[in-house]
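Self-study notes.
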Amino acid sequence: MPKTRELCKDIRDKIVDLHKAGMGYRTIGKQLGEKATTVGAIIRKWKKCKITENLPRSGAPCKISPRGASMILRKVRNEPRTTRQDLVNDLNRAGTTVSKKTISNTLRRQGLKSCSARKVPFLKPTHVKARLKFANDHLNDPEEEWEKVMWSDETKIELFGLNSTRHVWRKKNDEYNPKNTIPTVKHGGGNIILWGCFSAKGTGRLHRIVGRMDGAMYREILANNLLPSVRALKMGRGWVFQHDNNPKHTVRAFLDEQFPGKWIGRRGPVEWPPRSPDLTPLDFYLWGHLKAIVYAVKIRDVQHLILRILEACASISFAVLLSLCEEQEKRDALTIQHNGQHFEHILTVVRNL
């Protein structure tokens, strides 16, 4: 049965007033355009309760007892990957039959909702220990020290955007309309891989990586791009180079020869903790900001993609770059707060990107 229309309080009050004036149910109904049965129900309620407002309604009783709700809440907190069907089966064994929808409603009332699990690098106990050591060692470093760092990393930028996160609004059987599809390209033509660097003074050179990068190619990239970027940004004598623990970055002899005592990385003067993209401002912050600018327009081909990347890189403000460097202390503090595990990216500058 469909839900009936509810009369507003003014009409209910008018019905009562006309009844007090001596008018019958049918007459009141005809005058106000309402059914006589509706008029009668409102008058009987007024005679019994002396009010015309709606009384509180109890609603349907909850099928899951407080004890059952505590049980499923405890299970999803201990095992977040538990499915709704698992919880339905647990309650069935306890003598309570519910639907998946009831499970969802119960968990939602507790502030929990189903979300896609974030993918993060796997951390061994040694990785966690190294992350905590780095964060504690550098927690109180002055912001000026991080402003002297030249950060570097590689990233992949797809020709047609991030396919896995694109959604379209379409009608049934309209899935192959060109407006509703995402083109793909065979033989590696669908993306480009870049090496880039930046500091608080600006963005450095970008280098497109063709083929598989190894130690020899990485040394060549550094030789042709790192020092020219440092000189172009006028970083002075106190600058420091940072790269992560990727195996291809194992070029200690080259770095010790070219930049003695001036690098952060794999077993360097300052060793960068392994599997820690959330500790560098490039991986999760600047690259993401750059890609958002690139994908703001429809990309036609690889040459257009490269042009958009260069334009996006030039458009990033010094204020953003400076904030990313200065908030290294906050990234270290979040690492300590989360006992060395990965943390949510809630830094101030990220909200403003």
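Second protein, same conventions, sequence then structure:
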Amino acid sequence: MKAPVMVVTALAMGALLAGCQSTVPGSPEASSQNPTEPTFPTSRPTRSSPTPTTTTTSTPTVAAPAPAEALEPQNGYVFITTKSGQTRCQISTAEVDCEAPFTNSPPVDGTPANGVRVTSDGKLTWVLGNLGDIPVVPIDYRTYSAQGWTIVAAEDGTRFTNDSTTHGMFVAIGGVDAF
């Protein structure tokens, strides 16, 4: 009886070795589809005795906003131009005046206003005028400080907030909002 078991074992070993030595004719080609690997549950080894676990609690870290870049005044004013180049402003401690090609400005003396002014107490006034050849500093989409105002420049407009009163305005080509 031992002989048939040995014969079966020898045949099985021979078939196993023959399967490892076979080749498949052809050339491999990459698939244009995005195949995903199958997932199979994996078992975890068990332990005969429980191991004490330590639980640690971590507080999520929130990045602090970048500090505002201070813009230096010239003769009591800071002059800026937005990244788009369409809005120019002069900033003093008392007010912010901006000039732009507004699309929805009210008429002043029969002409659409091209300027707006907000005082530190939040009073908004539309004006006609030209800031002239002011020495502007181009600003990027970030936060600045100038003459007691915080300036937050973004793609959709620029927000000027007086640091003492928290009044100010949001300026965009499509409109202005005072607060």
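Instructor comment on the second fold: Residues 7 and 13 are 10 Å apart (CA to CA).
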